[in-house]
Amino acid sequence: MTDPTQDPRFLQDPYPTYASMRSRCPVQPVPTGSGGHISYLVTGYAEAREALGDARLSKDTAAFFAGKGSRRRLHPAVAHTMLASDPPQHTRLRKLVTKAFTTGAVAELRPFIAQVTDELLDQWPAGEQFDFVSGLAVPLPVIVICELLGVPEGDRPDVQRWSGELFAAGKPDVIDAASHSMADYMTNLIAAKRLDPGGSLLDRLISARDGDDHLSEEELVSLAVLLLVAGHETTTNFLGNAALALLQHPAELDRLRKNPDDVPAVLDELLRFDSPVSTATFRFTTEAITLGGTDIPAGVPVLVALGAANRDPERFPSPDLLDLDRDAAAHLSFGHGIHRCVGAPLAKAEAEIALRAVLTRFPGIRLAAPPDQLDWRRTRLVRGLASLPVRTY
């Protein structure tokens, strides 16, 4: 199997490929990279959920690559994040940030999210072709996470650029360079905040570190980078994918236009239908396991295709149908288990406020390009549009 991210047809619609793989076997070996290495790809829902909750699948990337002589030069703060750790380190780090993303904490951010959304929509030209991604889906989550972390306004364009480069599939040098730019920036921002503290989440993490909360300086930088990148890349894709799904289903779009209060209730189905995270982050077996009837040896990567699992007909009947009345709360787009996305409440709040505002202010919004000509981001990890041309009415 060649790298599917280089195939425009797969990027446009990966689900038929996933369906045929799942029907053959929900867990199967696939070649990865050029060195003849094998990984196991999980496409079934039950198997994906089981894998995400299995402690024998480690996320300690550093342990996996130790001694393998990789030529990669990722900055340690990007390579060794909370996301790439196991308990007890993961438990300790996650506890430090969970409070910032509780429903109550997100509720306090809602007026700010609504204000930014309105300011962005004020700039949309009426009746002309416009890019939904660059006009809303990219800037909104960046501004919100930067506000939460306390990143100054003038620095946000740089942060956004480096973050995008971290997902440049097939360009290891670009990714490595961006990891150093981002980590160096965060190190300097932390130093500046120590001299002039504020009330942001990053300031709270600094005081936890300086109050000896068993948080090392490298862990502090790494948490800041992770929250910044994970806090907006995925939400950008969620907004774009959700908008496209609705624009391609006029009856569903019309229903939400007439009943914008239904938006919060349909977010799970929009997340299930086209997951903004296509494949869960890196895991590997610490011992031989059997998953979905397939024996997997110790020490090999296991790729959990969240997008494929969300379209498993065993769990979601007629999975290729966008059904806004479906109970899709069990979708795996935020992951499952101890690594479930800590920012899920924030992502949902942003999507709810943004989609409701677009439908209210531009009830006649239409797709302005044939769906098969849309430009998708060439990356295996996340699934998202590079641009989404719309016409506003």
TrEMBL record:
Key word Heme present: yes
Keywords of the record: Heme, Iron, Metal-binding, Monooxygenase, Oxidoreductase
Coiled-coil blocks: none
Molecular functions (GO terms): heme binding; iron ion binding; monooxygenase activity; oxidoreductase activity, acting on paired donors, with incorporation or reduction of molecular oxygen
Pfam family, one: p450
UniProt keyword Oxidoreductase present: yes
Family: Belongs to the cytochrome P450 family.
Stated name of the protein: Cytochrome P450
Organism annotation: Streptomyces alanosinicus
Lineage: Bacteria, Bacillati, Actinomycetota, Actinomycetes, Kitasatosporales
